[in-house]
Design brief:
The complex is a heterodimer.
Chain A: H1 3-34, H2 41-58, H3 63-84, H4 94-116, E1 132-134, E2 137-139, H5 141-160, H6 164-174, H7 176-181, H8 186-212, H9 221-232, H10 237-262, H11 267-281
Antiparallel strand pairs in A: 1-2
Helix pairs in contact in A: 1-5, 1-6, 1-8, 1-9, 1-10, 2-3, 2-4, 2-8, 3-8, 5-8, 6-8, 9-10, 9-11, 10-11
Chain B: H1 13-16, H2 23-42, H3 45-71, H4 79-96, H5 100-124, H6 128-147, H7 149-152, E1 159-160, E2 165-166, E3 169-170, H8 174-195, H9 199-209, H10 211-216, H11 221-248, E4 250-251, H12 258-271, H13 276-304, H14 310-331, H15 335-348, H16 350-353
Antiparallel strand pairs in B: 1-4, 2-3
Classes of the chains: A mainly alpha, B mainly alpha.
Amino acid sequence: MDWIFLAELAINGALTGLLYSLFAIGLVLIYKASSVPNLAQGGLTMVGAYVVLALSYDAGLPLWLAIPLAAVIMFGLGFGIERVALRRLAGRPVVMILMLTLGLDIFLRGTTLAIWGGTSRSMELGVSYEPLFLGDIFVSRIHLVGAGVALALFVAFMLFFRTRTGIKLRAIADDYMASWSVGVSVERGVGLSWALASVVAVAAGVIWGEIQGVDQALSLLLLKGLTVAVLGGLDSILGAVVAGIILGVVENVGADFLDPLVGGGSRELIVAAVLILTVMIRPHGLFGRHDIERV
Amino acid sequence: MFYRLSGVHHANYVSDSRIFKVPADRNLAAFILLLGLAAPFIIPSLYLNSYMLPWLIWTAAALGLNLVTGWAGQLHLGYAAVMAVGAYSAIHAARFGVPWEFALIIGGLMSSVIGSLFAFAALRVKGLYLALTTLAMQFVMDWVLTHSPMISGGSHASLQSPTLALLGQDITSDTGYYYVAFGWCVLVTIFMLNLKRCGLGRALVAVREKDFAAAILGVNSFYYKILAFATSSFIAGVSGALLVATFFFLAAPEQFSVAVSIQVLAMVIVGGLGSIIGSYFGVALILLVPGLVNGLVVSISEGLGMQVNIETLAHIPNAVYGALIVVILLIEPLGLGKLYGNIRDYLMVWPFDQFKK
């Protein structure tokens, strides 16, 4: 085995993995605040990307204006989704909340495609496609940019959770009832987490849209994002970043070994296997909180 | 007034364990059964084949999922994969020359075996994590299906189903297909109706409410979870096989993808967890309404003289399907079955409850 080739696989895997983290941070934010598994994150990511495209290409705004504007719009959308849909199902069994977010996902996807059509569109960020060589190792520039965005968001959220609002969110995550009783507005906090997750979805949508084109496939990131979130522990942002890197490396290196054996396409299989193994061996993930259930 | 009694009051255990506790319900069920038997003579064959038949088979499948999710309380997002196992095993068996009766049973049993694997995930985790594991298992099964030409049938990944023949009769007419689907759906419904009132059903409900508490009461939750998964998988397998044999005529991996798993779960939840009549409603709603809305949009836009983009039209059913799930869950989280129950309870005591106030 060629070590340089292996290193290249690992580094590119880690970069791709950080892009999965970018997606997974949205899931973690919502789960942290309200214990709701947001299966609509894929749909939100897709909507985010399409809104950016609509603002920049259809309305003719420059990209540096379109992306923040899209983030503002999505902030409102996230808040609205929580207000209209999720709040009314708070406290219901998890199966109904799962179904609700699945329904939202289908609805968001269907509506987006009904408005903007299903043909794949390209998102040009102006990052050059010239390969970047670190020594002998080839690295894709856009992946590097995306990984940078993911890390920046991670740092931003780490700082955010130290502010007053962030501490409120942490309190809500810790105990609904207790934060209610000390006067923290739980509803607003949960709404805020949805809004922030939608903003993260814009970031993920833009980066992934540049990499693989803006179309329905964006919502397929959900399985990978979920795997990263579960491996990291569902309520830990640090976990999402670390797990993203792990999944990316395992996927990239593993696929290189497995593909010749099974005739290609083993990435999905590896991701699904990682998810199953995580849940079987360590359901609360690497950094997640271990819940104790009482009868 | 409508039900000719005011409320259900049991005087002995026999009346408590009846399937239909209200005579009017029994009469209604008998009437619908007769209607179902007469359907081929009432309904034009186009509707019979493209609406009634899939409705009945999907209802049977949804009832199977209801058994494991509604009764035993185990989330299952890999149901379509289990249906695929049944469909592919049955069709391979039939192509091999096994009579269809046995091929269907082989399909069901194979599904049971594979479906029980899902149960092992249920023994370790529950709730959200179980949902995610079964989802991942669905992806694994999808992958196996699309990557093994031996199962999925060569380069085009489609497998022709041989002519259906039951009890020595070749079934090729629309009416014949309909009766096969009808018979299977009635069988599953009768099974589920009886499950409600026997020990097994009560044990499953105990496991659903709290598996630890059930274990303390002496209900072996390990055993009942596996039993629930195996039984529901058997129903799934036979339903999947019948779906291919009477409706698709061709088995392809996309017919049993993740989206289908989500769709069956949506049918069950929109219909109402643990509600039999609800499953009928849920399947009808999820299966038929998106198409109806699309037709409506087309006719309205034609009426107004507007030109609707063809791509928009193609995606409207999806948007409607998602919106239906969300709206029903917001209106009544317990589903259409609960809505029906509310109306029934109101009518049961109708004029008399007015006097209480």
